[in-house]
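sry for the spam today, last one i promise. struct tokens for design, 174 residues
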């Protein structure tokens, strides 16, 4: 199930998903370096629910396989996979939002329901002084709760109007 690769940090393969074993400090450094180099990267925190969904739905697995980095997010996955590190989605967005607020990076939020998006944007602005949320949009077809993670990702890349809207905002973080 798992195999080691030669790179700066450990990468473990689980059900055709390459999951990176990085510390919070390493991830923070990686994010900063990507911004400095102006590299676009796609990250996801992967917990057991993502593993199960990837097992059951090949399209979801193929979406995750397109991401540049997947990090372990779950105690069970950490123990089962022998990961040294676990980074929650909360920890990861805190890295992004903190960096963004300190370095004047523009953020565009994509999510589910409008009311929740509005509350999230207000909370982020309150918690991260100086943050620039340049826009937010709800994902289409979000009513199917079972498939929402895959649908959100698909919507962002298939919805030409949404892509146009995001591009006009100057967003650097999505």
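last one done:
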């Amino acid at each position: 199930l798992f195999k080691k690769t030669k790179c700066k940090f450990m990468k473990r393969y689980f059900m055709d998903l390459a999951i990176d074993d990085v510390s919070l400090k390493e991830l923070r450094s990686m994010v900063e370096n990507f911004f400095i180099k102006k590299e676009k990267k796609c990250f996801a925190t992967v917990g057991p629910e993502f593993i199960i969904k990837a097992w059951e739905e090949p399209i979801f697995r193929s979406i995750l396989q397109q991401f540049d980095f997947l990090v372990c997010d779950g105690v069970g996955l950490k123990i089962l996979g022998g990961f040294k590190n676990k980074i929650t989605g909360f920890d990861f967005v805190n890295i992004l939002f903190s960096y963004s607020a300190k370095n004047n990076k523009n953020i565009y939020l994509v999510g589910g329901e409008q009311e929740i998006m509005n509350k999230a944007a207000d909370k982020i602005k309150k918690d991260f002084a100086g943050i620039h949320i340049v826009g937010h949009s709800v994902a289409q077809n979000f009513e199917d709760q079972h498939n929402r993670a895959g649908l959100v990702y698909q919507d962002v890349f298939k919805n030409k109007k949404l892509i146009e809207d995001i591009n006009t905002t100057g967003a650097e973080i999505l």
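The chain has a mean pLDDT of 82. ok im logging off now
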